[in-house]
Amino acid sequence: MRLYRDKAVVLRTQDLGEADRIVTLMSKMHGIIRAVAKGVRRTKSRFGARVEPFAVVDAQFYRGRGLHTVTEVATIAPFGRDVSRDYERYTAACTMAEIVEKVCVEQERDTEQYLLLFGALNSLASGAHRPEAVLTSYILRAMSIAGWRLATRQCAVCGRRGELEAFNVQSGGVVCATCAPPGSARPGEHTRLLLSALLDGEWSAIDAAAPGSLRLAGKYASAYAQWHLERKIRSLDMVRPA
């Protein structure tokens, strides 16, 4: 069928011509969608304000040969309004949007990634947790869903649970003293346990973490994601240190 409907998060927009926009969305049932929203830049547009970045919408699309077309939009959650008021929240959301575009495939269903993004944006918009904590947890969990789960509780190489003294991106996470390659980082037990909590969403432990440990965990998570994605996450350059 040419027409279809789906719930989606608006990731970004790009001006097209004098009045249109290309909208990139992460949808619940159809993965990444790229569609034209016609006339949304006109002052009398019916749904121009509804397709702003980080809004969650219920939209109808017309399936074209190239780009699809947005024909109807209803707002489910205007997360962008609260996220855009704070620099840390906004840059975290930009980074999450960039990551989900990299790990998901256009027109291929990935409901788990959609729900993870929805929950992370909800946390940012409500101020439930520190933006840097939400972002780091999101990075680790998005990578895990995509098939690159960070090893935090046992050696990434041999599976050993003791003497987890090092961290190595290329090896897959924490490694024991025997398996640690030369030049491996030495994060310390507090940071290793924090990485595990961030991956599993243990928010009582995450919220109690010291800023320094959270900042270090964020660096490890970012390096891990960029290594496995084999490309730079540009939005990370905007993120302030914790």
Automatic annotation (TrEMBL):
GO terms for biological process: DNA recombination; double-strand break repair. Keywords: DNA damage, DNA recombination, DNA repair. The keyword Transit peptide does not apply. Residues 1-79 form the DNA replication/recombination mediator RecO N-terminal domain. GO terms for cellular component: bacterial nucleoid. Signal peptide: none annotated. Belongs to the RecO family. NCBIfam families: reco (TIGR00613). Involved in DNA repair and RecF pathway recombination. This is DNA repair protein RecO. It comes from Actinobaculum massiliense ACS-171-V-Col2.
